[in-house]
What we know:
- The active site is at 239 (nucleophile), 276 (proton donor).
- One of its GO terms (biological process) is trehalose biosynthetic process.
- Substrate binds at residues 237-242, 301-305, 371-376.
- Residues 95-445 form the Glycosyl hydrolase family 13 catalytic domain.
- By secondary structure, this protein is an alpha/beta fold.
- It folds into three domains: 2-52, Immunoglobulins (Immunoglobulin-like, Sandwich), CATH 2.60.40; 93-182 and 219-299 and 359-394 and 403-481, Glycosidases (TIM Barrel, Alpha-Beta Barrel), CATH 3.20.20.80; 504-569, Immunoglobulin-like, CATH 2.60.40.1180.
- Helix content is 26%, strand content 22%.
- Helix 6 packs parallel to helix 7 (252-267) and helix 11 packs parallel to helix 14.
Amino acid sequence: MKFSVWAPAARKVRVSVDAGVHEMTAGDGGWWHAEAEGVNYAFLLDDDEKPLPDPRSRHQPHGVHEESRVYDHGEFAWTDDAWTGRQLPGGVLYELHVGTFTEGGTFDAAIERLGHLVDLGITHVELLPVNSFDGTAGWGYDGVLWGAVHEPYGGPDGFKRFVDAAHARGLAVVLDVVYNHLGPSGAYLDRFGPYFAGQNDWGPGLNLDGPGSDEVRRYVIDNALSWFRDFHVDALRLDAVHALLDRRAVHLLEQLAGEVDALSAALNRPLTLIAESDLNDPKLVTPRERGGYGLHAQWSDDLHHALHVKLTGETSGYYADFAAPDALERVLREVFFHAGTWSSFRERTHGRPVDTRTVPGHRFLGYLQNHDQIGNRATGDRLSATVAPGRLACGAALLFCSPYTPMVFMGEEWAASTPWQFFASFPDPELAEAVRTGRRREFARHGWGEADVPDPMDPATVDRSRLDWAEVERPGHREVLDLYRTLIRLRRERPELADPRIADLRLDTAPDASWLVLHRGGLRLAVNFGAGPVTLPLGATAALLTWGEATVDGGAAQLPPDTFVLVETAAAG
């Protein structure tokens, strides 16, 4: 068996295979090679006595500090030969964290709940990162060995079983990957070569444009291609791409998109790249032939922020700008609220306008909640903890009737009462205390007492964050689940609701933005966020969906506060 590793500055490299140590031979481009027989292996650089795991490890059964294990992708017995993939347009995503989605917290346990997603009408299931990180419990964003699947979830075979089972049920799989930084424990890449270049808000960033960066870029791209090719994943969600510092003429994202498109052609199924970005720059999703990077979609935090402020009235921090009366209308019409305009949170102008005549809405993911917007609150409280059911229903109706690709966070569909809090489980006591202290200090600046912020290292924090599936059939939860099922079904059955042409969107609003009417072809969605009832003449011929005490009579909608109607009009014929 051949073992290889990139270590361009090393004077000598040895590989320890099943406790036997073998000298490696220097090859071209800083690569070292050796032939040996065995399963468990690690590398010794120069005169080091402690062996290090393989930067390109495929399996870490004993954690990120220990030896790697040989893993053959060809040995898994796939059953998804008939799977042809799913395109993103027309899709509905469901974001989940494997460790807290079920009581078992494994891929196999999650498989048992896939029927719920199918029944809900989900098309794409998005998993938070599953790469290896230090400890047993965590969000996954502190990964350090990107090609190895977290063993407590079920390891590489467990993930493949999950993907295979999802495909059997018609669900595409989206995987969240983190290329902008590495976690604080087990990040040994810089021992092997010039992988790192500076720090960002979360940890060491990658060297994408300096000396030696060709191999570093290859490291990223090969990892992405492996998820598609070897694990049969259908899409990748690229975490915080604004932190990928790259001054080359061809940005890493553009290079990645080109290679993914080539692999898509070879595999004959759609492969999708979805960016998370703070840049408000449509260049990310602009096709390469028009000078963009050619990614397929990106998250739309501006839509979330506008909806959040409308539903909750919160205006602190980055929500301040979205208190503008026209904020929700602007993001529905224009995608970005900050589009070359002043951002008070950043204290500068920010963003660039989207050409809504040429860029379709399906390239932007909309959501009421996601892991960040819940988990990065001090207590991890969901909207359902503070917002009345009727108001939440109005937000959901706007989301699913918008021209954007909707995404649901696990449990949102039944107004889950469980919080989703920040947690980790670093074995190093000093690191654990640093994370604990840093979390409390961060929220103390916003007025939270130390006792109010959950201890991220306490196993009870993880336990509180697990979904309670018994809630699904309980009053107050069952009605919300029925609403989500109906909205998703209508979006699938009525093409007008999934129409991604943003420029064709018509929107009527009250001067104070207390109500709005969304025109979707011959359908009208009327929503009342105001404190009093309102009557809106819609020319309705039939009511497709109502919420609360809303009624339709004589073509007009009678809307008490926090209610909505979705109606068909004569124009539909």
